[in-house]
Amino acid sequence: MLGTPTQTWQDRRRAAARREVLAAAWEVARRDGLGGLTLRAVADRVGMRPPSLYTHFASKHALYDAMFRQAWSEFDERFAALELPADPRAAVHGIARFYVDFALADLPRHQLMDQRVIPDFTPSPESYAPSQRAMERMVGRFRALQGVALAEADVDLFVAAVGGVVAAQWSNDPGGDRYTRLLGRLVDLLADDLGLPTTTPREDP
Amino acid sequence: MLGTPTQTWQDRRRAAARREVLAAAWEVARRDGLGGLTLRAVADRVGMRPPSLYTHFASKHALYDAMFRQAWSEFDERFAALELPADPRAAVHGIARFYVDFALADLPRHQLMDQRVIPDFTPSPESYAPSQRAMERMVGRFRALQGVALAEADVDLFVAAVGGVVAAQWSNDPGGDRYTRLLGRLVDLLADDLGLPTTTPREDP
DNA sequence: GTCTATAAGTCGATAGAC
DNA sequence: GTCTATCGACTTATAGAC
pLDDT, tens digit, for every residue of B28-86? Predict the structure, then answer.
C-alpha cells in the first residue's frame, strides 16, 4: 500500500464517473450500433451535457479505446476463471464454446474486439495489451493440454476457424444456430488433425 | 429487343453518371474507410456538388446498397468464369483460394459484403439477390464435384472456416500471410472430413 | 476540478431557382 | 440535372459559473 499516492479521496468519484460513462456507451452501442454511437446519446443516458464527457474522455476515440480495453480484459478474466475438463479433447471443445458464446453475446463488443469497424481507430498500446494477454493465455492453456505438442500455427488455425463460425453466424443467421451447431464437428476435425488424444471415450448420442 | 422502351437516348448518360458516382464511392471508401465515407468526398471526387448526388442515389444508404450489389455481382461473375481442375480436391482448393483472394483484395468491399459494419444498413432484396445467386452457384459447383454427396451443412462449414481465415488475416495481420498460409492445410482437413477423393495424387514439394 | 453555456465546422438531406 | 441556400444533428473545443 505504501508508495501509492493517497489521493483516493475524490479519485474514486472520478473512477466511478468514468465507469458510468463507459457503461452508458455500451448501452448506446447495443441500441444504435457501434458506428452509430454518438457522444450526445451517451451524455443523455448518463444525465450529462455532451461537453462534460470530455472531462472523462479526451475524445470519442479515447472512449472506443476504453471500451476495447474493457472488453478484452473481461474476456481474459472470464477465460482465466473458466474451468476445463481434464480430457484434452473435451477441454478444446470447452475453449471453443467459451470463445463462440462470448463473441455471440454482444455484437458491438464483437465488432470492436475482432473487426476493424471504426475508421481511423487503432487501440492504444495500453489497451492492446489485454488482448495480447488473453491470446497468450489461450496459447498457454492449449499447450498445457496433455498428449500433444502444439505449434503457433496450430493455435492460429484454431482461432481462425472458430472465429469464422462466429462471423458467419453473425452476418448470415444472427440469432440462429445455422453455423454454431457445426462447431462440435469443426473442433473434432481440428483436434483429429492435431492428434489430440481422448482419454475419456466420447459419449453415445 | 422488342418490348424494351427505346429511351436509350439519354438513359445511357444517366447510367454512366451512376457508374461514375459508384466508382468514386469505392475510391473514397478505400481511402477513408467504409464507415468514413461521406457524400461530400464522393461529390468532390466526381466534380459535383453534394446535393446533386441525390439525382442518382436517393440516400447514402442507397449508395451503400448499390455498392453491395455491385460487389456481389462481380464476385458471382468472376466465380462463374473461374476454371477449376478436374480433380475434386484440387477444385476445392481452387474455390477456397478464389474466395480468400477476392476478400483480401479490398477491405471496405469485404466489410460491406461479409460484415455488418454500417449501422441500420440492410441490403434491399434486389441487392441481396446477387449474393444469394453467388452462394447457390458455389453450392452447385461443390455438388458437381465427383465422388461425394454434399449436404447443406458441409458447404456451410466450408464457408465459415474459410471465411474465418479471411477475417483473422484482416484483423490480426493485414497485408501479411500468417493465416492465409494455413489455408491449404485447412482445406485438406475439410476435404478429408468429406471423404473427398483425389484422383490425381498430390505433388511432392 | 467539474459543471453549464455556447459556438465553429461538418455531416446527411431538402427546397427551389435556373 | 445541377446548382445555391439552408436545415437539423453531431463532434469538438473554449469560456466562465460554481
Answer: 999 999 999 999 999 999 999 999 999 999 999 999 999 999 999 999 999 999 999 99
Nearest nucleotide (CA of A41 to C1'):
D10
Residues contacting A115, CB < 8 A, separation 6+: B111, B115, B117, B167, B171
Question: Reduced to 3 states, what is the DSSP secondary structure of residue A62?
Answer: helix
Q: Give A83 to chain B, closest Cα distance, Å.
A: 26
User: Which of residues 44 through 73 in chain B touch A, CB cutoff 8 A?
Assistant: none
Contact B84, B141 (CB under 8 A): yes
Q: List, in order of start, the domains of chain B with CATH numbers.
A: 7-57 (1.10.10), 61-193 (1.10.357.10)
CA dihedral A57, A61, A64, A68 (to 10 degrees): -110
With contact defined as beta carbons under 8 Å apart, do A123 and A131 qualify? yes
Cα B108–Cα B113–Cα B117 angle in degrees, nearest 5: 65
Q: Are B102 and B72 in contact (CB under 8 A)?
A: no
